[in-house]
Amino acid sequence: MIGKIAGRLDWKGLDQVLIDCRGVGYLVHVSDRTLASLPPEGEFCALYTELLVREDLLQLFGFPTMLEKEWHKLLMTVQGVGAKASMAILGTLGAEGVARAISLGDARAVQAAPGVGPKLAQRIILELKTKAPSLMAAGARLSAAPQMDETVIESAPAAASKPAKRAPKVDDAALRRAAASADALSALVNLGYSQGDAAQAVATIAGEDPEVETAGLIRSALKLLQPR
């Protein structure tokens, strides 16, 4: 199984890239969002990958974080969601957006992805609302970008002619938000709330105030969860 590829970005297509890893070129399918985040051709990049194996086809799909890769795998457990639909959803919403949509039951947000109809969007919400919270709780731990191996950079032909660049790092603010949401979710579950209810409350508060810290997130979520 090929789990990560790091090397020189030789070519960018509409939905795929060619990465040269020590003389071997790997064709990797990526979402629009991932494609836009990659460096220019000729520079170095790293992606986590998932290999799709069929009788007549082998395809590699690339992701900027392990979190997005895990969301891809989770989305594909839903009947009717193939690799193309999963990549379209992640390309439209990103990992955080998918988590928020499922937590809030927002099928319309999922439906915004190309090729995803209302029935499929609703099925995704219904089937993943109990599975998503555990992945959301692991969000901060899985949000780091893959690291570039120094030996890959040093042995590449273009390394001598131009300074090598590492793979782009995940935005620090996004990491803090993911960590705060994960900590708040864990605290609410420990207080006895179900993962589904806790995740929905956390997503609601985080959507209203993206800069809220863990303590404030817990307090506001508790107010939402109190019986009326």
TrEMBL record:
It holds the Pfam family RuvA_N. The keyword Manganese does not apply. Belongs to the RuvA family. This is Holliday junction branch migration complex subunit RuvA. Gene3D superfamilies: 5' to 3' exonuclease, C-terminal subdomain (1.10.150.20), DNA helicase RuvA subunit, C-terminal domain (1.10.8.10), Nucleic acid-binding proteins (2.40.50.140). Residues 160-228 are annotated as: Domain III. The RuvA-RuvB-RuvC complex processes Holliday junction (HJ) DNA during genetic recombination and DNA repair, while the RuvA-RuvB complex plays an important role in the rescue of blocked DNA replication forks via replication fork reversal (RFR). RuvA specifically binds to HJ cruciform DNA, conferring on it an open structure. The RuvB hexamer acts as an ATP-dependent pump, pulling dsDNA into and through the RuvAB complex. HJ branch migration allows RuvC to scan DNA until it finds its consensus sequence, where it cleaves and resolves the cruciform DNA. Homotetramer. Forms an RuvA(8)-RuvB(12)-Holliday junction (HJ) complex. HJ DNA is sandwiched between 2 RuvA tetramers; dsDNA enters through RuvA and exits via RuvB. An RuvB hexamer assembles on each DNA strand where it exits the tetramer. Each RuvB hexamer is contacted by two RuvA subunits (via domain III) on 2 adjacent RuvB subunits; this complex drives branch migration. In the full resolvosome a probable DNA-RuvA(4)-RuvB(12)-RuvC(2) complex forms which resolves the HJ. One of its GO terms (molecular function) is hydrolase activity. It comes from Pseudogemmobacter lacusdianii.
